[in-house]
Specification:
Blueprint (H helix, E strand, L loop, with lengths): L1 H21 L3 E5 L3 H7 L4 E5 H23 L1 H28 L5 H6 L1
Antiparallel strand pairs: 1-2
């Protein structure tokens, strides 16, 4: 199983390197569209290789997806935490009640119950 993972990672690395080598041309990224930049007075552009833009978009999409999923699952995590606290409280109560039941009895007989 470990070798399959390494083989997959190697294939993924080769594919990413091939995409990077095929998309080395420089592109200009603008902060705002032309019409809006004239109104605001900000005409910010940056020149980057196309593969950096592609990989940056993939990474940004993954991060947005992870954060979205983490926020979506908040109610489930809160419910699990509430149930865990309730289980801990009930375990303490059972332990206390068992201690009261066997109070004043022989220890060996208490173990048999």
């Amino acid at each position: 199983m470990k070798y399959i993972r390494y083989l997959f990672l190697a294939c993924l690395g080769v594919a990413l390197i091939a995409v990077a080598l095929a998309n080395r041309n420089m592109v200009s990224l603008k902060l705002m569209p032309d019409g809006l930049s004239r109104i605001v007075g900000m005409n910010q552009t940056i020149d980057l290789p196309l593969f950096v833009v592609i990989f940056g978009g993939v990474v940004a999409g993954l991060l947005i997806g992870f954060v979205w999923e983490w926020l979506r699952e908040h109610k489930h995590r809160a419910e699990v935490n509430r149930k865990a606290r309730e289980v801990g409280k009930l375990e303490k109560e059972v332990k206390r009640l068992k201690g009261e039941k066997h109070k004043g009895k022989d220890e060996v007989l208490a173990l048999l119950d």
